[in-house]
């Protein structure tokens, strides 16, 4: 009962932040302007609304992708931007910039997602092949893999003189979100809903292969579904927004500590917290050096790292 | 009835099961005993389709465990492995509720709630039902796992070392509960167990394994024989009849 009250409170807070996000930025827009000034209405509809929608969609989707990855690897310390998924997506993007610079955003997204999928599968494969003595080995392997892919990316970007555009693509930033350039994120929203719908399957898979087989779940199919979901979300978000560091790591961990891991119950919280956190970081980034903007990935990196360290120390006390 | 027909299994090149052939009778408790590395857990995993055999066939209730759809089998056979380390945080109620997954696919209905509450009561877990698993003692957690498997309400229940982590009191209580499940609910229970005295007192049938082979099978009276046990375990064993139970003395 109290959880419902908290959730409603959380939703209200999110709506308040979204409203704030609509009215903050270099161009000063007020409610009255919207009514009277058609130019202002233009800014509002072309820039502010898409940006806010993009923040909500990308924030919740990346958090859900992190959750699914943690369940499928049965490891709390992994997320797509840590273990090679987003790095692979960037590599895919680079390949497109070199070989088909004129390709549509849609094609770029598909290619980035395919690369993301290959990278994620490679990570899952390696993490299964090696028998780990400690749970921390899994993310370490992921970080190494991510670094290798990232290095390959940088090498070719230098070779083709694309380092700057790659950097621009990669850093998570919502300032470039305009009408016509973010709509793919609705697809991400759809995929996130699909993941919510299969919540129970992911919960069971998170209890391991033996447990899943015992209750008759098709474990391999759920693994594949999860991989596709992670890769599509990771790939599309990288193409449209860039990398959102730590998000998929901290949000599922906070929600797990508070409410456990029954995904059907916790996934609304994960969406709420994920979109709220990104929204908050973006608002901070817009206000801190007004009228200039600091990319959300920078703010998120700082905030995320601090939260993550707090979580780690909490875990040690609990364990 | 579980029919095990000529099962062989190798890990890389090391054979762990060699042509195991056995029939586990319908009803009652069957105990699989044997020294470490005899292949008991591997056999249990193969019976429950968690592991594929290299050769041979297992039939549970006349269904080939490899070819029968896994979700159908899940309503006839349930299994609990020895190590259960979950990184997920679930409450006892949620975990036990997933025992109903083969029937309701996660969307619990009224019938499911009856089964869940019954399983919780059966293992005296009702007062802990809203606790997270990582907030329980090892023994309580072990009971929660068994409750989950019983909640699955299958005719065949396979348990690998169900007395793991249980102290004397809870180990006896667990065996009594399994006995009750066999007697009152008519289940066929197969357990891998280390303590042969528990096997002697509580089981109806014993399969004894050594070096990947089935070396003896029979009633506890037949197996609880000092010569047989010495041969299986390579250690001196004396059998004493105490209160009409055959108890092995090997300490």
Question: Helix and strand layout, with pairings?
Answer:
The complex is a heterodimer of chains A (319) and B (251).
Chain A: H1 2-22, H2 31-36, H3 38-73, H4 85-99, H5 105-129, H6 137-159, H7 163-170, H8 184-197, H9 199-205, H10 209-214, H11 219-240, H12 247-259, H13 263-287, H14 296-318
Helix pairs in contact in A: 1-13, 3-8, 3-11, 3-12, 3-13, 4-5, 4-6, 4-11, 5-6, 5-11, 8-11, 12-13, 12-14, 13-14
Chain B: E1 2-11, E2 14-24, E3 28-33, H1 40-47, E4 55-60, E5 63-64, H2 70-73, E6 77-80, H3 92-97, H4 101-104, H5 110-122, H6 138-151, E7 156-160, H7 168-185, E8 188-192, H8 196-202, E9 205-210, E10 213-218, H9 220-223, H10 226-233, E11 238-242, E12 245-249
Parallel strand pairs in B: 3-8, 3-9, 6-7, 7-8
Antiparallel strand pairs in B: 1-2, 1-4, 4-5, 9-10, 11-12
Helix pairs in contact in B: 5-6
Broad shape of chain A: globular
Overall number of domains of chain A: 1
Contiguous helical run count of chain A: 14
Rounded Rg of chain A:
20 Å
List the helices and strands of chain A in order: HHHHHHHHHHHHHH
Which oligomeric form is depicted?
heterodimer
Structural class of chain A comes to mainly alpha
Uncertain ranges of chain A: none
Which sequence of strands runs across the widest sheet of chain B? 6-7-8-3-9-10
Strand content of chain A: under 5%
Radius of gyration of chain B: 18 Å
How many beta-strand runs of chain B? 12
Q: What is the name of the CATH topology of chain A?
A: ABC transporter involved in vitamin B12 uptake, BtuC
* Main sheet properties of chain B: 6 strands, mixed
- The chain-level mean pLDDT of chain A equals 88
